[in-house]
Write a structure and sequence with these properties.
Among the domains are: 41 residues, Arc Repressor Mutant, subunit A; 88 residues, Alpha-Beta Plaits (2-Layer Sandwich), CATH 3.30.70.920. The longest helix has 13 residues. With 192 residues, the protein is of the alpha+beta class. Strands 2-3-1-4 form a four-stranded antiparallel beta sheet. The chain is built from six helices and four strands. Helices cover 31% and strands 16% of the residues.
Length: 192
């Protein structure tokens, strides 16, 4: 276990209040040199503790979310699920869990209709080794109000999970906008 120093905690508190705070302003507030602040930030970053990234408000963007509880039959299938969905732009969070459900995921979609299609046909619930799943659609998000949402950097013909969204019956009937990482996506969450 890695312990944070008092200074590192102070720096993190300042960044939590204002993620765009300049190093010079932090050094002034903490009474230390800007070089010391920079070294602490580098140590936090290199240690995998701190990653600077924009956080977005899904409610303000009109996105809906659902919590997925999954019971996966064996460890190798857990690893397959993680590998398959690692770059999924709709997956906000994925974790192992203790108890009857051994994986937990948080997914987002443009609306509840799209969420229903995604969860019923092409996402985590239908992956190899899933014995049982439970979906809990979320309504009002109280904490945190902002989360990290993946906006794809490039488009391809297939989704990162391997699904062929562009030829899916739900996509072709215009019931689903497709995956934001595909060239055929019909939504706003796309790099183009």
């Amino acid at each position: 276990m890695k312990w944070l120093s008092k200074r590192q905690i102070q720096i993190l508190r300042l960044l939590m209040k204002d993620g765009r705070m300049k190093i010079k302003a932090m050094s002034s507030k903490l009474g230390i040199s800007h070089t010391a602040v920079k070294k602490h930030l580098e140590a936090l970053s290199k240690g995998g503790i701190l990653k600077v990234s924009p956080l977005l408000n899904p409610e303000k963007l009109g996105l809906v979310m659902a919590l997925l509880l999954l019971e996966v039959d064996k460890t190798e299938n857990i690893e397959k699920v993680v590998g398959r969905f690692r770059d999924c732009p709709r997956l906000v969070f994925l974790s192992r869990a203790l108890g009857p459900y051994n994986m937990v995921g948080l997914v987002l979609a443009e609306d509840y209709r799209v969420l229903d299609i995604l969860l019923g046909r092409c996402m985590l619930r239908v992956s190899e080794g899933i014995r049982k799943s439970e979906v809990i659609p979320l309504t009002t998000i109280y904490q945190p109000s902002h989360i990290q949402i993946k906006i794809p950097e490039k488009l391809s013909s297939k989704a990162p999970c391997g699904a062929d969204c562009c030829n899916c019956p739900q996509f072709l009937s215009r019931a689903c906008p497709g995956c934001p990482a595909t060239a055929c996506y019909r939504g706003w969450l796309s790099p183009v």
